[in-house]
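note to self: the first set is below, dont mix up w the second
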Amino acid sequence: MNANITETNDLYIIPKRYRITENLHIVFWLIKDICWCTLVKPLGLAMIVPTLSVAIFIAWQNRKIKAELYHNLAVMFWIIANSYWMVSEFFHFDEKQIVWQFTGKNLAVVPFAIGILCLFVYYVFIMPAERAQRLKKENTV
């Protein structure tokens, strides 16, 4: 367990500096999406880097709590999908057929699906295994 994060059965505490990073991440993401909506290409494209970088950092920082890790991985893939979609619109290949019947924009479904897969793995496999392990530990004490 990371010395900076504490976890009990019902509660985990994230240090203030981690929360500040998460809040800054939201600011980056909002700036990126505002640039997308207003068609400010240079800043929108530039904001992909800090938005995705901080998402990766947050996932790494919280990697020892599996619930946080898997949810943060899903967020990371959401940002990748969202950024790809923005790029497809900025460079006008969003409506072009790329593969089979899929347009440039439709291909954003791949990272979106990977994010859903992360959550599926967590909720179907990891969480039940952790719960079973916790119950077993409680019953042997």
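second set (the one i keep forgetting abt)
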Amino acid sequence: MKVKEVVTIHSFDEEGALLPEEKETINRLTKLPMESLDLDAIAVVTNVYRMAQGLKNKMEREVLADYGLSWTSFSMLYDLWIGDSIETKKLAELAGVTKPTVSNITKTLERKELCYRKTGDRDRRATYVTITEKGRSVMEDLYPRFHQGEAEIASGLSVAEQKQVSALIRKVIKANDF
């Protein structure tokens, strides 16, 4: 008879306090017939996901809805605001979506006169999306409110902690080519 290995639960923060959702996750996952379970990795990934979803929902509700923008359309418009004109393949990579999604969102942004498409000068097969003056104006009006939301979200951390979290997330991004 095989003896079930006891999984040691490691502390996920200095105080060892877990969120209720983490306790539920641990209780469920430790019952699975798995040889090993990396609870620390689970905690990192699920908390990053939970935070990203919370950020997205907060910003869509409190800022982006006033401009008729979804998270993805804002992400694309933001990238265009920073980059001015971007090839659709690169825009898809930056926004973390497929080229067909970029095409659909670009149509919506074009109807709002926030951007336009143009064919590449060197390669006629390439399509670029360019922000319009109206798109720039919307971003210049929207971004201060968006940034206020960013600051609110990070306000529970000291500046040193914010830098530490940023450095650790960058490390994960680089290690995974995200």
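remember for set 2: The chain has seven helices and three strands.
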